[in-house]
Amino acid sequence: MKEQLHALEKEALQKVGDATSLKELQDVRVAYLGKKGPITEVLRGMGKLSKEERPIIGELANKVRGNIADAIDSKKASIEAAELEKQLEEETIDVTLPGRPVPTGGPHLLTSIVEEIEDLFIGMGFEVREGPEVETDYYNFEALNLPKGHPARDMQDSFYITEEILMRTHTSPVQARTMNAMEDKRPVKMICPGKVYRRDTDDATHSHQFTQIEGLYVDKNVRMSDLKGVLDRFAKQMFGQEREIRLRPSFFPFTEPSVEMDISCKVCNGEGCSVCKQTGWIEILGAGMVHPRVLEMAGYDPKVYSGFAFGMGPERIAMLKYGVDDIRHFYTNDIRFLKQYHQA
Ligand code: DAH
Question: What is the pLDDT of residues 173-202, one digit of tens each?
């Protein structure tokens, strides 16, 4: 019986040693230590042994059983440790792997241009103002020296909501609104960017809705030369120091005298090309000295105060600056167009 037990022990330890998984190990445990296993079998046959032999075999059987159980436990621990090790290795995160790029948005080209122009005028002491897009006939026209029936109203085909309310056709009403709001009639130096609306058929250079930036400077002794200086600085900062400006006589009911400002064509440097229609100059904006009637209607005494005003279209400025050939690109949101103007 002794030999039988030793042989069983050897055999079991061998199998424990060979086991490579927890499942195999469990099978060994059931096979050798289970109720139907060979060791239990041996113990069952102890009744047939002599009194002297019984404790010896009993002790040996328990020892063998203990040895096998110990071997299984330690093997179990080592298999578990190896499995954990393997799992850790397989699931290691490589933190050096480059991340996936997160697509981010950026400001629209028009937003960037408006902000650039704002910054430029803020640098010259202007503040930024806003006004409503749904405007009264009074502010959109009348307060700007365009009484009902004035032929110049036809220059700006309008979207009327009622007889007295319309979508503003330009940002000029903000001139009148700003001056009206100044209770103490102190000097005004502001720009106003915003959307404007006209009953136009959309094409490469026209849109029924577009953007304008208005400028107004009212103070004592404001002169045409101040206007020219401010516009010259604007043109050079926006389009390059080598640009020249010229003021041409024009007509706007709210300014007297009125001018249109051209910059020298940067494509041909004034030589004449298709961009400037062979003239060497490109029209950028309208401007002039604020009409005394406009000052008066807003409560400013034209004998004491004078001022200049200007109005420009940022779309046109962006088109010239970046060579965009169709104004509709600003509104159709083709991501391929917009992306070209993101810094990131
Ligand atoms: N409001 C004019 C327009 O929409 C542009 C303009 C011209 C604004 C002359 C001015 C200005 O302030 O002085 O066509």
Answer: 999 999 999 999 999 999 999 999 999 899
CATH of domain 109-341: 3.30.930.10
pTM for this predicted structure: 0.73
The CA 227 to ligand 1 mean position distance, Å, reads: 14
DSSP E strands in the chain: the ranges are 127-128, 134-136, 165-167, 188-197, 209-219, 245-252, 255-264, 281-290, 306-312
**Count of CA atoms in the C-beta half-sphere (13 A) of 225:** 1
**Per-residue pLDDT band at 232 (split at 50, 70, 90):** very high
Q: How far is the CA of 258 from the centre of ligand 1 (A)?
A: 9
- Please name which of 181, 179, 176, 213 lies closest in space to residue 196, comparing C-alpha atoms: 213
Q: Quick one: which atom of ligand 1 is closest to the CA of 290?
A: 13
CB 259 within 8 A of CB 250: yes
Among protein residues, the one whose CA lies closest to atom 8 of ligand 1? 311
- Output the CA 203–ligand 1 centroid distance in Å: 22
> pLDDT for 281-329, tens place per residue?
999 999 999 999 999 999 999 999 999 999 999 999 999 999 899 999 9
Q: What's the gap between Cα 48 and its chain centre?
A: 91
Q: Which atom of ligand 1 is nearest to the CA of 172?
A: 1
